[in-house]
Amino acid sequence: MEQITIKEVAKLCGVGVSTVSRAINNHPDINEETKQKILETIRKYNYVPNNSARNLKRSDSNTIAVLIKGISNPFFTEIIQIFEREVTREKYSFVLQHIEEFEDEVDVAIQLEKEKRLKGIVFLGGLSYHTEEKLKQLTVPFVISTVDVTELPDEFASVTVDNTRESQKLVNYLCDRGHRRIALLAASQKDESIGKLRLGGYRRALEEHGLPYDESLVMWTKEDLPTYSMENGYALTQELLASGEEFTCIFAISDVVAIGACKALFDAGWRIPEDCSVAGFDGLGLAAFYQPSITTIRQPRAEMAEATIRLLFDMIEGREVVKRQVFDAELVVGQSVQELDARPETGDGRGE
Amino acid sequence: MEQITIKEVAKLCGVGVSTVSRAINNHPDINEETKQKILETIRKYNYVPNNSARNLKRSDSNTIAVLIKGISNPFFTEIIQIFEREVTREKYSFVLQHIEEFEDEVDVAIQLEKEKRLKGIVFLGGLSYHTEEKLKQLTVPFVISTVDVTELPDEFASVTVDNTRESQKLVNYLCDRGHRRIALLAASQKDESIGKLRLGGYRRALEEHGLPYDESLVMWTKEDLPTYSMENGYALTQELLASGEEFTCIFAISDVVAIGACKALFDAGWRIPEDCSVAGFDGLGLAAFYQPSITTIRQPRAEMAEATIRLLFDMIEGREVVKRQVFDAELVVGQSVQELDARPETGDGRGE
Questions:
Q1: CATH number of the domain to which B18 belongs
Q2: Which range of residues forms the domain containing residue B106?
Q3: The pTM is what?
Q4: Is residue B336 part of a domain?
Q5: Contact A71 B55 (CB under 8 A)
Q6: Domain check: are B225 and B145 in the same one?
Q7: What pLDDT does residue A77 have?
Q8: Separation in Å, CA of B60 to nearest CA in chain A
């Protein structure tokens, strides 16, 4: 499709290219009438400002860094995409920095801040165990995204769901469907982030239903696999099957872990949900497209991503903000959980 | 867990912190015996060099930019992760720039090169239709990754599989299993990148087997959905089912599209592979964990990602290089394709 160029727009309006650029970029230094004329021409000829023009004003001194733990987790893919889009829209540069499991992201942030003259930072994943003192070394605004920071004072900005409450909501649903022996595919035993919070929600729901917390039904992630991976769900479920423990349902702490669990059950000749129910957490597209679709908690990813960047820019520009933003998540009922009311409480004696 | 610091390592070895840093960073300017002593101490006390120390040498003037089209495609997730790791290891900064479908990535690259004093560029996805002249405006080394550039002269560096040949290999396999009416879930009709090449491989395989190319079995991606998405596979398969055309197999041009196709078939009450076979392309982990697992072509993603960065740094540092690197991909036989030899050639007259 032939497109009109910025030069042609300038010619049609009888102005210079830089004036067109000012109109596009909403620059204050332009006559309002001229601006309207240019914008009208742009609309009329369907001119799409190309990235070069859009980016003319960006420079290294306007950079936002996103520090991410667990980049292989598909939960973050759409979030990063929205971050990148929103940061670019504000004419800032976007730097993505992957943090290894063993690395301390606050140390990395402090260093990056010096190297890159950052204007703001987003922490994505990880981070709930950090002390106030360390975070206070950061001099630029930052937002902690998709992780609860219940142990930090309110002055720290965060955007998240209540992982404990949402996990409890899901496990309540499973208990209400008649499940009494619900295995948990958990994060590492040392986890101090969302893995611990979702475990907490699981325990609260059991308690609410008068069910014991049975450690033999909790499969802890080992060090050799990334926590939020299908491979991990597969390995933990094989371990669960080999343990000989009885269970009618598996709650995996994320959807990718749930999908690994399903595959391990299928490979062992089990049917889902007839022989075992499975539930996840996150509400990935993947959970909906799996066969059977996975019952899960859908975090409002897009809204949380947009809120994160909005909050960060509001802080950068000194506007009034609500620093602690907790979003509601939604229970999504898929095809992977069976109602057990008519069955005996202890399962059907099925072995592995 | 309490960890030893770089200062404590220095004290234990009777050297300064900068000497420890030189040992860690493999700096030439250090006595070999001292270096070995330091590395031994590090191993003994399990010291983990933190990111701050590793990054001390990085600055904005050592930046590699990765320009990506289709960031939501999970095929790129692991690749980006490896890029980031390898670039960081070379003590360079890593900038990720998402390119919209309608944007011209070479324009963006030219602009970024000016703004950021880039040392090198990787184009990931997109790009096969670009003219030589435009790419020649770039003054820094660049590598085109995961896209064939058959129309460009050999002087342009690229790392890819042969998408035409690999697609042909897969469709040959389907034909050899007795399939005669293989529907194709294709990219947009305007696609000039890998979508077009994989279509070419499909046509060649049909020809090789004396089968007609039947346009009524080709479902083109519309403009409203991202090509490489489950949603697109779902929509295209619904369209195929509604068309009333007979087919015994679906070849989706990527694994995520194949998974969308499977879900649409399941939702219509079909079984896979009993009622219809499905094959994909890419070899994602997801294809292996789907139920049934998807027959696909596995691109050696990790090797291609590492080769891309190695090639780029070899060019930056003026070493001799092989500029066109074509990797072999592997046919992965899953559970989603049925052998049809015993069945009539035109299918079993099953409607929707």
A1: 1.10.260.40
A2: 63-162+300-328
A3: 0.79
A4: no
A5: no
A6: no
A7: 83
A8: 7
